[in-house]
Specification:
alpha+beta, Mago nashi protein, seven-stranded mixed sheet, 16 strands, 39% strand
């Protein structure tokens, strides 16, 4: 695996932050211990990149340590961790290149899927990383979205969540949840717009119907969406299997968190 570090500056002036002061792999290790996980004391760090991935004027940190970790500067000395998915899981890999040919700064990831070498391009979209879509659809004003989390071998939450076109939601807990009865609420206009934008960018028509990553005991999910006079079903047997699905799940998990908290 390549060993590297790089600082890519964009035309606009960046606001200095803690990432800007990082110079060595040991600096990265101490940063990750403070802002992510103490397990980084023993991680082998292969390299790092310092980039402004969301164009907010502050430098973000990409760390290659077997897997890819991204620490997004959220302001106020707060950093939000993201782990990039390569292939159908979190396979080892390297950053092949950085594409800064337009405003959408893109990371090109290189990894092996069995005997094949794969190049996968991801981009920051909204509030998460997604596979780069050269020709995204417009925001999808879906009729109904039904999400099923069917658990794992352990005590993973099992539930169903249905969201209608008007934002009305029904949360149906099944097992290992904090609720015993169905909960009905309504999503805000902003939450619905975020969902529609993610669905439009991920390119539903081009996504597979089944994802079966080679992982063990990860939660399984089933996504069923009715939109534009057609329907799409995606079974993610040990998810999340793509960065785009992870971005969508993040929003759906947030709904569940709010419903469980009521």
């Amino acid at each position: 695996m390549h060993r590297f570090f790089i600082l890519l500056l964009l035309p606009s002036a960046l606001m200095a932050n803690e990432v800007d002061r990082i110079q060595t792999k040991e600096d990265v290790r101490q940063f990750m211990i403070r802002h992510f996980d103490t397990s980084f004391r023993s991680e082998a760090i292969d390299g790092f990149y310092k980039l402004d991935l969301d164009h907010n004027g502050s430098t973000d940190l990409v760390v290659s340590a077997g897997r890819f970790y991204v620490m997004m500067d959220m302001g106020g000395d707060e950093y939000e961790p993201h782990q990039l998915i390569t292939g159908d899981s979190f396979n080892d890999g390297s950053i092949f290149s950085i594409d800064s040919s337009d405003r959408a700064l893109r990371l090109v990831l290189k990894y092996k899927d069995f005997q094949n070498t794969i190049l996968d391009t991801v981009v920051w979209f909204g509030r998460d990383f997604m596979e780069y879509n050269r020709r995204p659809d417009s925001a999808i004003d879906f009729d109904e979205l039904h999400f099923t989390a069917y658990g794992c071998y352990g005590e993973c939450p099992q539930y169903e969540l249905t969201i209608m076109r008007d934002g009305s939601m029904v949360y149906m807990p099944k097992a290992y949840t904090g609720k015993k009865k169905d909960v009905r609420v309504r999503a805000t206009a902003g939450e619905m717009n975020t969902l529609r934008s993610i669905l439009g960018y991920m390119g539903l028509d081009r996504m597979d119907s089944v994802y079966s990553p080679f992982t063990q005991d990860a939660p399984g999910y089933l996504l069923e969406i009715s939109y534009r006079g057609r329907s799409k079903k995606i079974e993610d047997k040990d998810g999340p299997s793509t960065n785009s699905l992870a971005a969508l799940y993040r929003e759906l998990f947030w709904f569940r968190y709010q419903l469980e908290s009521n």
